[in-house]
Amino acid sequence: MSGSKSMPTTPSKGERQTMSDGTPGSAHDRGRDLDSTTSDATGEASPNPRSPNPAATSSGTSPTAGDSQALVFETGTTPVSPRRPLNPGLYAPDPANPAPEPATTVADVVYRLMHPDQSLYSEDGTTVTLTIIWAVLVAGPERFGLTTPPDGRHSLDEADYLHHYGRFYGLSPQIWEWLTGGEDTLTLPASHFA
C-alpha cells in the first residue's frame, strides 16, 4: 500500500494541547473560549449572547448605567423574573392565601379537611365555603381524577385510601359525598367543623 494517511492524534492523558494562538490548553478550554466570545464579520470578538455575562466585552470596559442589559445581567446577579413560580399540583397559588403543602397520610388529610383555613370562613364566621381546588391542594392531586363531561370536575378516586378510610378517620358524610362528586363548592355551617 502506498501513501498511507496519517490520523490526527489526540494527546494522551495528562498531556496538554496548544491552542491556535500558541497558548497551552485542552479541547475543553477551547470550548470555554468559544462560549465567552464570538467573532463578528470584522473579526472582532464580541460577547456571546448565551454567555453568562452578555454585558461584558472582550475589551474589558464596564457597561454603562444607561445600558438596560447591563443593569439586568451585571456580574454576580441574576435576572429577576416577573412571573411567580407555581406550586406543585394542579393550580397556581392564590397570592392572598398561599396553599398548604399536601398532607401525606389519610389521617392528616382528614384532619386538614375538617379544620379548614380561616380564609374559607364567611365574614360573620357562621358558614364555611369549601372549594374543590382547595380540597385538591390539601389532599394532593394524586388522590383525584376528572369526572366525565359535561362538568369535568375533580372527584375523589374510588381506589384511593381516602375514599375507603376517610369516614373511619373522621371525615364527615357531607364532605365525603362532596369529594366523590357534586358542585365545585360546598357551604356548611361553621358548627360542622367545631
TrEMBL record:
Superkingdom as given in the UniProt entry: Eukaryota
Region (Disordered) residue spans: 1-102
Biased composition (Low complexity): 45-59
Biased composition, class Polar residues, residue ranges: 1-12
Protein name as it appears in the record: Uncharacterized protein
Organism: Massariosphaeria phaeospora
Record lineage: Eukaryota, Fungi, Dikarya, Ascomycota, Pezizomycotina
